[in-house]
Structures are given as structure tokens and as C-alpha cells.
Structures
1.
Amino acid sequence: MTTATPQSLPDQTPGQILPLTATRDAAGRLCVAGCALPDLAAAYGTPLYLYDQATLDGMAAAYQAALAATYPADWEVAYAGKAWLSTTLARWAAARGLGLDVVSAGELAIARQGDFPAERIHFHGNNKTQAELAAALAAGVGRIVVDHAGELAAVDALARAQGRRQPIWLRINPDVAVDTHGHTRTGHAGSKFGLALADGTAEATALHALRLEGVELRGLHCHIGSQFRAAEPLALAVQRLLELAARLRDLAGWRLAELSPGGGWAVPYLADQAAGLPAIGAYVATVAQEVAAGCRQRGLALPRLVLEPGRSLAARAGVAVYTVGAVKQTGAVTYLFIDGGLADNPRPALYQARYSALLANRLSAERPQRVHVAGPYCETGDVLIQDIDLPPVQAGDLLAVPASGAYQLSMASNYNAALRPAVVWLAAGEAHLVQRRETVADLLAREATPGLTFGPDAAEADRWP
Ligand code: LLP
């Protein structure tokens, strides 16, 4: 546990979806951390992603303060890097005393390049390759979160070959369904993640792990889903994990040293989605009290409690900035075309996620009109926002999309050979380019030129055998 440096806690006013530092200047331009978005767009181009450090600080502090206040033993907040990871983010997370979840050799490499301490890294994933497990061991990651029996054997063999004992957690499937989009539910029976509790697989695998020399079973983990708004299903999952821990104590004298009930807490993407969503502090308190009470009831010593927020740390800190290219009337529908969309944010297409947008370069008193905000990609589903009321805009106007900090850039693609956006980190009134925009040269750098020849004769022969 690391004590958080004093930071302001995030503004919990319902409907807050812009970064904590968002303001309008006298000219009506949207600013984040004192930087005017039109200036940033001019300097770095669009689509542009902005990260506000003050908001990241506030969110991390909200988690840390809530755990310190409500959990009477050791704890850790481990950022789930899949939400968005860069070397700068890794450096920031290290400085804030966070742990870090990674799920691939790529994320591990980014974290290490950002000097993130290996012992505070947890390596997740349901199908880690031998190469990834070897990389994890070579880096000295703190925990490997084992998903299934085959992986347990692989970690054990690799560690024994090096004369080491790798600390592990087991990922448990507690068979709990949360209320969220089906694609982001991960703890129900039939999910591809984790060891099933109900049929005894989890218990048998844990007992087996305790007999292995290459691994040290330190804890149990579950992650039941993402973007859920009520903690009750998580409380049930926690009780099921503690029940397993108590059985393992009774059967094998094992002590649960660490417990991670994952992440998954929701964020509002639209102002009206904040209604009824408990604050981070309330969610953390529920989990902390559930763990403490469940342990007391079963006579278990309190484990180190590890929470793994991704979205709720990063989403609100991020703003995507786009330039309007054209406005097009098609029948009854008005399309507002912007220079990004599906390629940098597949979430509307994948999860029917809804977003809002603001005019960023000026304020307008004109009557809003109903429009669809669509990107340039060759896909009917490339509609970033369906049905939004915006003041009349014209080519060259800038749109800012709040709550863009999680699972957008990390899921961005090169569809249509799109170039992934630049990322600018905003802190104390200063802008720092932390990821440059991808270039055509980056795309071409992957192309290989083997000695294939495609003579006209061969092509003719194929067509007319
Ligand atoms: N821990 C584990 C083991 C996870 O698998 C995840 C997310 C987290 C923590 C963090 O969850 P969060 O606090 O960010 O909800 N692409 C989807 C979200 C997938 C989440 C996958 N696992 C989306 O855009 O909604």
C-alpha cells in the first residue's frame, strides 16, 4: 500500500463527464487543464486524444482514499492497462503507487519501457503463450493470474526450470451475472474466463497448485464484468471466493494472502447516465465491507485487497477531438461528418455505446438540430453518435467527445488504413505529446517484399484452367 499524495477528489456532481479541469475561455473555446482545444488541434492535428492528469489523479485518489477509509488491512489499486496504456501512463501509475494489470507481452513491454516496477505487475489473460509466460518470468512480474490447469502446469514448469517459485493467483469463475452488455460480462457460467467454482474445478486446481514447487498460490481473483452500476453481484462473487478460501484452509491449511475482485465499475458517458450511479467511494466501501465481513464470518485473516479499475480511472480523463469535414442532408437525416470514428472508437459499433459531443472551438446560441455524427470509414456502423442535438456546425468546427479515455485508443484499429491518433497529456497548463500520430510510413513499415512474381501467364492460367 502506498499513501496517495494529496490530490483533489473528483467532483461527484451527477452528470460530470468532462475532465475535472474543463472550462470555457472568454472566447467560448473549450479548455482542458488550461489548454484551449483549438490550439491543441492546430498544433497536433485531429483526431486527437487528450488525457487530463488532474482527472487521473482525482480518480486514483478517490479509490485510494476510499480503501484507506473502509478496508482495515492492506490494499492496492491496480490500474487495468487494457483501458489505455502508454509508457507515460505507466510512469504516472508507478508514481501514484498503483499496481498494474497487463494481459499480453505487448502491454508488459510498454509497462517496462515506462519503468513500471515489475513486482507491482499482475499478468492476466486466458491464453498466455509460452513466450508470454517466459517474458513475464524474465521480467519478474509480481503475480501471474492463472486461468486454467494447463497454464498452471506451464508456469510451474517454467519457474522450476529456473529454480524459482512464481507467486500466482487463480482466476475463479464465480458464476455471477452482472447487468451490463453481454460482451462485457465475464463471470457467468460458460464464460471463457477462469476456473469454474460450481463443478469443483477451482478447488481441485487450487489443491493441485499447492502441491507444486514452481508456484506459490498467493491469492484468488475474479472479474465479473465491465461497466456495471451496482455492487451486489460483486458482493456475491466475493462471498463465493471467500467460501473457496475457507475450504482450502480447512482442506490444506492454506491462507488467502491476497484477494482481487477485479474492476468493472461503470462511468457515465452521457450526463443523464450519472443518475443512480453510486460514487466510486460508495462502490469501494461496499466491496471492502463485504470482504471484511465475509472474512470475519469464516475466521479468515483479512487478505490484501486488490481492486483493478480500468475504465473508472481513465475514461473521464480522456477527450477525443475531431474536425468536422462536412454536413450532409440525406432524406430526413442530417449527417455531421468528422475525421475519426470507428477506427479510433469501435465502442458504439461493438457495444451500442452512446456518447455525447460538444462544439469545442466556439459557443453557439443557435437552436440545436438533431444530427448523426459519423466518421469517414467504409462501414454503415461508423456512426459515433446517433441522434444528438447540436447547434448548427460547419466544416472546420471542432467536436469534443467526453469520456473517451478508456477502451478507445486501446481498441483502435487501422481499418481503411486509418492512422491511429496522436495523444497529448495535459498537466499544469502544459501539453505534452506522449504518442505521435501514426504515419503512412508506419503502415508501410510492416509490409514484406518476398520474391513472389505474378506474371500475366500465371494469372491467365488460373482463370482458364
Ligand atoms: N481486471 C480484469 C481481469 C479485466 O479483465 C478488466 C477488464 C478489468 C480489470 C478492468 O475493468 P474496467 O474497470 O475497465 O471495467 N472493451 C470493453 C471493456 C472490456 C473490459 C475487459 N476487462 C469496453 O469497451 O467496454
2.
Amino acid sequence: MGITIQDIQKKKREGKRISMLTSYDFPFAQIVDEAGIDIILVGDSLGVVVQGRENTLSVTMDEMIYHTMMVSRGVKNSLIIGDMPFMSYQAGIEDAVRNAGRFLKEGGAAAVKLEGGSNVADVITAISRAGIPVMGHIGLTPQSVHSMGGFKVQGKGAEGAERLVSDAKAVENAGAFSVLLEGIPMELARRVTQELSIPTVGIGAGPFCDGQVIVLHDLLGLFDRFVPKFVRRYAELKKVSIDAIRRYREDVESGKFPSEEESYK
Ligand code: KIV
């Protein structure tokens, strides 16, 4: 068995940072796993960075299961979390539990993540009671892009901050094993991290969370349609790939590829 929920929670107790990254297919899941990342999230961000859509709303359960299956074939150690897509848990509790179960049964994930605070507390409780660990997700919740009026930083001002803290506590009390904090001021993330006993993992939430997550295609420089302020690029794989492919094309066109050594006799 690789990394467990208990290992993740222990990291918070011991003051150790949690690393989390997204992956959507076999080769990248293998790479992320081999690099020693604690948690791999099969995020519904695949709608944007893999499918090329404007937002995550149209991603389906079947698509999420397909990607989770590919990821789990590449992973030996990281904890895999499947991201519940829009309308897979909002329409009813039974539906939510059944869809969450598919991530474990068909996808090979160990846990699920879903967006929302006190409004989804009953869903988190029902899924957790079914033996499926849940990571909450509060703050900027991309599936609510239309009700938020765009992808905007949340929890600003005293009232916004109190609402966010109360959502964080609702998620913890509902039975979530951890909570993702997205797009909130860093001092608010620090407060939530101090007040909760479950680990917080931040994205665009500053340095004081128990862990950090970003989208793999952002980290590797594969996605450049827009680059949020919180992204740090550790590689420029799009540029490297274009260069490699261009050299291949030139070799084909000039007859340099394949050589005799690369051919059968
Ligand atoms: O879908 C996703 O990739 C996410 C990010 C916040 C990491 O939820």
C-alpha cells in the first residue's frame, strides 16, 4: 500500500508539508508518482488543460473515471483522489454516494474531492459514511463560476472571511479528511489552517497551508492560454516539445531520419 489518508493527516500533526499535483493520464501519473508527490488529484481541470474547454462544467463522470483509471495504472505510491465533476453530487445524496463509489470501484482512486462548504455538508457525511474519504474544496470553487460572477478571489472582507471559516468548519465537522483552499487571501488561509485539525492544501492561498497543489500542465509549461498569479513554472515543456518536433520534421524532410542504424536489415 502506498500513501494513506492517515499518512496525510499525520503530516499535519508532525508539521510536515503535503505535496499534491494533478495528473490525467498514465505517463504523467508515473512521472509524478516517481517524483515522490504525496497526492495525485485527477482534477476536473482536465476539462480546460486536456480537453481545451473554457471551464470545467461540461466534464462528465464517465470522462473522470476514464482518466482516473489511466492514472491509477501509473501510480505505485501516491494517494489518488478523484475529483467529482459538476452535477455528480449536487442533485441528490444517493446519486452523490454512487458516483463517489465509482471513483474507487472503477477508477482505482482512494478518495474523492468535491466543491462546497456548509451547502454540501450532508453530502460529505453520506460519502464518508460509505467508507469513501472526502477532501472538501472551498473558496474559489470553479464549478460555481457563474454564481461567483467569474473566477474571483473569495473570502475578502470581514464577512467573506467569516463565511469561509464557517464553511471550513462545516466541511471538517461533516467528516472530510482534508480540505482544499483555493483563491483566498493568505492570512485567511493561515487562520483556517490553524483552526482546523484536518490538513489544508492550498492553491492560490499562500504559503501557510499544510500543503500545496497546482495543475501539472501549469507547472510544466504545457498550458499557456492563461497563467494565474499563483503558478510557478518549473519547466517549459511546450517550448521543448515544439523544438523536438520541429527537429524531427526537418530530419524527415531532409532524409536524415531514419538512418540505416534505425532501420531493419
Ligand atoms: O480540478 C483541479 O485540478 C482542481 C485544482 C484546484 C487543483 O481542483
